[in-house]
Structures are given as C-alpha cells and as structure tokens.
Design brief:
Number of strands: 5
CATH topology of the largest domain: Rossmann fold
CATH superfamily of the largest domain: Class I glutamine amidotransferase (GATase) domain
Number of helices: 5
Largest sheet: 5 strands, antiparallel
Strand order of the largest sheet: 2-1-3-4-5
Helix content: 10-25%
Shape: globular
Strand content: 25-35%
Number of domains: 2
Length: 166
C-alpha cells in the first residue's frame, strides 16, 4: 500500500522476525488512529515478520507507531474521506497479544460494524437454512466434525449428495 500510494519501500538492512515493542506516536494520525489503537497501552508487543521497510510514508500519511527497528510500524492517512491504515506487524496472530483488540477496533469503531449477530442468524439469513449444524446433519449419513467439512458454502453443501459410506 505504501509503495502504491507514493511512499518509498525498500529492503531492510536486516530481516525483522519475532516479537517487537510498538510505541504509539503522540498525536500521530489524528482522531481515527485514536480509534484504531483505543484501549492499548502506550507500548505494546507485536509479531514482526518482514524483510522490507517503509523508508517514507505516502503523502497524506503519518507515523502512528514505531519499534526500535521500524520507524513506521503503524501509519495512517490524515484528512482523507476514505481513511487508510497500514501496519508493518501482524495483528492477526496469537503472538500479538492485543491484535484482537486492534482488529476489533478497526471493524467496530472505524468500519462501524454492529455486534448484534450470531453465526446461526448469519447462516439463516444468508443461506436460508436454520443453522450450520442442521446442514451438517442433513448432508452426511454420519455427522463429520466441522473441520472435516468440504470448503463449500453451506448453501452448496446442503444440496450435495455425498457418496455413501461403507
């Protein structure tokens, strides 16, 4: 994203892999960034895994988080209608303890997603079936654990006629 929008990205002097401590940059990125990092301490641990480095953020972006080796560990656009956020670390992995909070802040605070749904209501509304469990029990002669289900949408697997088991 940084490169595509006019920033400068190049190979890092050394590959960064493992835990790192991100420090928030006071006032960086404006109000939206306060939402992204809301509830996190001023310094928090993340998981890094990269061999490149952002040497200069694109026009209109500000640094909002740094590590000892990564000047732009977190960056955000300022003054854009469509706010953009970039993270040089992995919030989605278990090695980033507050990663779930960062992703939750993005989905709920920034994107405005409501937390008023359940998987059962999603399946019923999206695919017109009572639940995934009902789908599992009606499509197989013997129920399989969910992890062994074929990677098909429930609406497809519901209508498939799987081969009979011996």
């Amino acid at each position: 994203m940084a490169h595509q929008l006019g920033g400068r990205v190049a190979k890092a002097p050394h590959r960064e892999f493992g835990h790192a401590d991100v420090s928030k940059v006071a006032g960086g990125g404006g109000e939206g960034v306060a939402d992204l990092l809301a509830g996190l301490p001023e310094k928090f641990t993340v998981w890094m895994s990269h061999g490149d480095k952002i040497h200069e953020v694109p026009p209109g972006f500000e640094r909002v988080g740094t590590t000892a080796d990564c000047e732009f560990a977190a960056a955000a656009s300022v003054g854009r209608v469509n706010r953009l956020f970039g993270l040089q670390f992995h919030p989605e992995v278990a090695h980033t303890p507050q990663g779930k909070d960062i992703l939750g802040n993005f989905v709920v605070r920034i994107c405005g997603a409501k937390q008023d749904w359940s998987m059962a209501s999603f399946m019923e509304g999206e695919f017109g079936i009572p639940s995934l469990r009902a789908c599992m029990y009606t499509t197989h002669t013997q129920p399989l654990p969910i992890i062994q289900q074929p990677p098909l949408p429930a609406s497809f697997s519901k209508n498939l006629n799987p081969p009979q088991r011996p």
